[in-house]
């Protein structure tokens, strides 16, 4: 069966090779044949067009003068040209006026008249047609005299020679295929005698050797690779015969050793079983110890990381507290001084006309006092840390109130090329917080985002609920739990890693002091988040933008003010269940 398979494979390989050669020749000849046919049709078209151009004026005059006999003579002159078989001339209404027919040509009904031609148009058409079961190249054109369409001419060119050329090429390809078929038969015959039959003998000898007939020989007279394989097989068969004889004699002496070996194997199996049990028990003990040790190491590493984070937060808190106390003391003194600077200019402006030379300087003093008062207010906000945070509120409501506030309108008026986009989650959970401090922090974040985009841009404010299942190691370490997240994102210049380390320090700013920043806004944000027991995370890339994420602990579902007590009671009861 395998030999038949080998013969089939060899025959198939030869056949596939010949088929591929035939297809390659056909693929190479097809474009040339196609181009030849198209070129032949173009030459026929040019010939018929040239003949028509030569006779066009003569035909037009004869049609116009209604000289039917002269018209038929002109058509017969054209018909004498090789392969031009039949001609028809029609008047301007499409009715046949004269014709020159070949022998045995029957005029089909389709060309006796012209029905679907626009008689007002000047056109020429060349196409292949079949009439009376013969193929023609049809040249159809209008005939004009001084721009007037007087009739039409139809010339039928016999494509018999054209088709004979195509048949000759097809016959050549058929002869080529027949030659390839003969090559396949000859190759198959040669391979059968020189390869397959010797391989069959070699296989039969191998089968006999496989069945135990050691010493069998194969006779192959060829000196090629198969003949060399036969010689090697004969040597191997003789060697196996000798080895089999030696092995038979050795088997006779093995029984005594086999019994002793069997006893030894039983003892080894028992020892192996005991050893496996001991190793398994020890492995279980080591796995438990290793797991316990790994848990202790992870707990210590986590405790060490938490200790480092707490120490960093404590150091930052002490630093901020010291700066806050200093700022608070200075702010109280400045507040007393500024009370006169802010109030007295209003009294002076009441007595001054706008045309008075002192009006603008006094107005400048008033504006400067108001700006200084705002700075003092930031200092007081920074100093009043430790505020009691016990009001249950919804961050969406705080954001909406801030967006409607004068402070936000002032930022939008100053940065009129900034677009504010909001994306608030509808079912946002409640938090505990101070609306005043939260609005102040939101204002500072929005102001910084606007100033980070001096050429205009977009600020995106978003809120959403988020469950942190793995601690976030960002700017601050965010523990696992349920949070309400406030996200303020801009697409401005970004914040470098060096500046991120000091961004929340009071009076630290990259802006021009007194003109676009005081360095207190981000310190107020940091202090507010500390009072709310929240976390801050910063994501920033230079020239791509910055995102501030504020994490607040969730306190339950959002409830309207008139239903707050009832909703809180229901949530508390569900939690208790």
TrEMBL record:
<keyword id="KW-0547">Nucleotide-binding</keyword>
<keyword id="KW-0175">Coiled coil</keyword>
<dbReference type="InterPro" id="IPR005467">
    <property type="entry name" value="His_kinase_dom"/>
</dbReference>
<feature type="transmembrane region" description="Helical">
    <location>
        <begin position="169"/>
        <end position="191"/>
    </location>
</feature>
<keyword id="KW-0808">Transferase</keyword>
<dbReference type="InterPro" id="IPR003660">
    <property type="entry name" value="HAMP_dom"/>
</dbReference>
<dbReference type="InterPro" id="IPR004358">
    <property type="entry name" value="Sig_transdc_His_kin-like_C"/>
</dbReference>
<dbReference type="GO" id="GO:0000155">
    <property type="term" value="F:phosphorelay sensor kinase activity"/>
</dbReference>
<dbReference type="Pfam" id="PF00672">
    <property type="entry name" value="HAMP"/>
</dbReference>
<keyword id="KW-0472">Membrane</keyword>
<protein>
    <recommendedName>
        <fullName>histidine kinase</fullName>
        <ecNumber>2.7.13.3</ecNumber>
    </recommendedName>
</protein>
<keyword id="KW-0812">Transmembrane</keyword>
<keyword id="KW-1133">Transmembrane helix</keyword>
<dbReference type="InterPro" id="IPR003661">
    <property type="entry name" value="HisK_dim/P_dom"/>
</dbReference>
<keyword id="KW-0067">ATP-binding</keyword>
<dbReference type="GO" id="GO:0005524">
    <property type="term" value="F:ATP binding"/>
</dbReference>
<dbReference type="GO" id="GO:0016020">
    <property type="term" value="C:membrane"/>
</dbReference>
<dbReference type="Pfam" id="PF02518">
    <property type="entry name" value="HATPase_c"/>
</dbReference>
<dbReference type="InterPro" id="IPR003594">
    <property type="entry name" value="HATPase_dom"/>
</dbReference>
<feature type="coiled-coil region">
    <location>
        <begin position="254"/>
        <end position="320"/>
    </location>
</feature>
<keyword id="KW-0418">Kinase</keyword>
<dbReference type="InterPro" id="IPR036097">
    <property type="entry name" value="HisK_dim/P_sf"/>
</dbReference>
<keyword id="KW-0597">Phosphoprotein</keyword>
<dbReference type="InterPro" id="IPR036890">
    <property type="entry name" value="HATPase_C_sf"/>
</dbReference>
<feature type="transmembrane region" description="Helical">
    <location>
        <begin position="12"/>
        <end position="32"/>
    </location>
</feature>
<keyword id="KW-0902">Two-component regulatory system</keyword>
<feature type="domain" description="HAMP">
    <location>
        <begin position="193"/>
        <end position="245"/>
    </location>
</feature>
<feature type="domain" description="Histidine kinase">
    <location>
        <begin position="329"/>
        <end position="556"/>
    </location>
</feature>
């Amino acid at each position: 069966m395998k030999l038949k398979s080998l013969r089939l494979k060899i025959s198939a390989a030869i056949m596939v090779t010949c088929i591929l050669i035939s297809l390659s020749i056909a693929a190479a000849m097809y474009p040339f044949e196609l181009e030849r046919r198209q070129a032949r049709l173009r030459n026929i078209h040019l010939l018929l067009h040239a003949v028509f151009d030569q006779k066009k004026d003569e035909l037009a005059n004869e049609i116009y003068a209604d000289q039917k006999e002269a018209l038929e003579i002109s058509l017969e002159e054209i018909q004498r040209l090789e392969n031009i078989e039949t001609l028809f001339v029609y008047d301007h209404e499409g009715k046949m006026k004269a014709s020159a027919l070949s022998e045995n040509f029957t005029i089909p009904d389709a060309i006796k008249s012209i029905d679907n031609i626009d008689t007002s148009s000047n056109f020429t058409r060349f196409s292949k047609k079949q009439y009376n079961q013969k193929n023609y190249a049809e040249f159809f054109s209008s005939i004009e005299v001084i721009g007037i369409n007087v009739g039409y001419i139809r010339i039928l060119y016999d494509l018999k020679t054209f088709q004979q050329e195509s048949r000759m090429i097809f016959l050549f390809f058929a002869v080529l295929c027949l030659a390839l078929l003969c090559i396949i038969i000859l190759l198959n015959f040669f391979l059968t005698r020189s390869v397959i039959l010797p391989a069959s003998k070699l296989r039969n000898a191998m089968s006999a050797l496989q069945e135990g007939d050691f010493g069998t020989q194969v006779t192959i007279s060829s000196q090629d690779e198969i003949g060399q394989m036969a010689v090697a097989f004969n040597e191997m068969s003789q060697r196996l015969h000798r080895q089999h004889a030696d092995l038979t004699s050795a088997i006779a002496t093995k029984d005594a050793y086999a019994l002793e070996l069997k006893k030894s194997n039983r003892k080894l199996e028992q020892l192996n079983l005991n050893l496996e049990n001991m190793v398994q028990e020890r492995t279980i003990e080591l796995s438990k110890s290793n797991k316990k040790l790994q848990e202790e190491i992870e707990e210590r590493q986590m405790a060490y990381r938490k200790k480092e984070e707490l120490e960093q937060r404590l150091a930052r808190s002490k630093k901020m507290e010291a700066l806050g106390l200093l700022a608070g003391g200075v702010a109280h003194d400045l507040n007393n001084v500024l009370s006169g600077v802010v109030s007295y200019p209003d009294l002076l402006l009441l007595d001054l006309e706008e045309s008075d030379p002192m009006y603008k300087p006094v107005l400048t003093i008033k504006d400067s006092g108001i700006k200084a008062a705002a700075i003092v207010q930031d200092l007081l906000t920074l100093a009043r840390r430790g505020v009691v945070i016990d009001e249950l509120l919804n961050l969406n409501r705080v954001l909406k109130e801030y967006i409607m506030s004068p402070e936000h309108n002032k930022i939008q008026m100053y940065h009129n090329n900034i677009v504010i986009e909001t994306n608030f989650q509808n079912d946002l959970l409640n938090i505990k917080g101070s609306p005043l401090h939260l609005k102040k922090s939101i204002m500072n974040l929005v102001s910084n985002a606007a100033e980070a985009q001096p050429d205009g841009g977009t600020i995106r404010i978003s809120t959403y609920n988020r469950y942190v299942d793995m601690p976030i190691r960002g700017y601050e370490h965010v523990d696992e739990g349920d949070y309400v997240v406030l996200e303020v994102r801009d697409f401005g210049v970004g914040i470098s890693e060096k500046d991120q380390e000091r961004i929340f320090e009071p009076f630290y700013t990259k802006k021009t002091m007194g003109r676009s920043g005081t360095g207190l806004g981000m310190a107020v944000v940091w202090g507010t988040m500390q009072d709310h027991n929240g976390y801050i995370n910063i994501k920033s890339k230079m020239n791509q933008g910055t995102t501030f994420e504020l994490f607040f602990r969730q306190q339950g579902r959002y409830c309207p003010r008139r239903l707050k007590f009832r909703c809180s009671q229901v949530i508390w009861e569900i939690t208790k269940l």
